[in-house]
Amino acid sequence: MQRVIFLSIGRMKTSWIAEGCKQFTSRLARIIAFTAIEIPASRNFDPQKQVQEESAAILEKLERLKGDVWLLDVCGEEMSSETFAKAVEAAKDAGRTMIFILGGAYGVSDAVRERANAVLRLSPMTFPHEFCCLVFLEQLYRATEIQRGTGYHH
Q1: Taking residues 70-95, what's their average pLDDT?
Q2: Is 110 a member of any domain?
Q3: What residues contact residue 101 under an 8 Å CB cut-off, 6+ apart?
Q4: Residue 149: what are its φ and ψ, rounded to 5°?
Q5: pLDDT band per the 50, 70, 90 thresholds, residue 2
Q6: 22, part of any domain
Q7: Residue 14, domain member (yes or no)
Q8: How confident is the model over 83-110, as a mean pLDDT?
Q9: Is 16 inside any structural domain?
Q10: Angle value at C-alpha 92, between 136 and 99, nearest 5 degrees
Q11: Rounded to whole angstroms, how far apart are CA atoms 77 and 72?
């Protein structure tokens, strides 16, 4: 069974987004070994310090995990759902764990970027942080359904 870990900064505060994330997490858990880890957001008011504190927490978690690290970031590569599904399938076929990271509102440090094996951009548009979690989980679910050949995708 494919193993996927999703590290994200902060917790869900908006009920309808939290419900959507919960639904996709539940669906994913039936198909893959899926783990979502929420890292507390920094309470610092200085954006640079927020990035440093949150990035340090991400790197600390990564020290205990093994797998291919994918950073979800505005500066990443855009890919279609089909291309993403192929990447997920390639990792599955190779027996590699995929670790996806969604940093905080101000992004992540260079140290986290350097740790990433790939950087993925969800959209050229700007979305609230929580919404990015929902979009990512839906796309991961879509990727699994494309692999399985179900009718979910088209």
Answers
A1: 97
A2: yes
A3: 7, 8, 58, 69, 70, 71, 72, 108, 112, 116
A4: 75, 30
A5: very high
A6: no
A7: no
A8: 97
A9: no
A10: 45
A11: 9
Domain span including residue 62: 30-148
Question: Residue 138 class from Cβ within 10 Å (0-12 exposed, 13-18 middle, 19+ buried)?
Answer: middle
Residue 99 has pLDDT above 90, yes or no: yes
Checking if the pLDDT of 153 tops 90, the result is no
Q: What is the CATH number of the domain that holds 108?
A: 3.40.1280.10
Number of folded domains that form the chain:
1
Report residue 120 as tokens: 């993925």
Q: Quick one: three-class SS letters along the chain?
A: CCEEEEEEECCCCCHHHHHHHHHHHHHHHCCCEEEEEEECCCCCCCHHHHHHHHHHHHHHHHHCCCCEEEEEEEEEECCCHHHHHHHHHHHHHCCCCEEEEECECCECCHHHHHHCCEEECCCCCCCCHHHHHHHHHHHHHHHHHHHHCCCCCC
**pLDDT in the model for residue 49:** 98
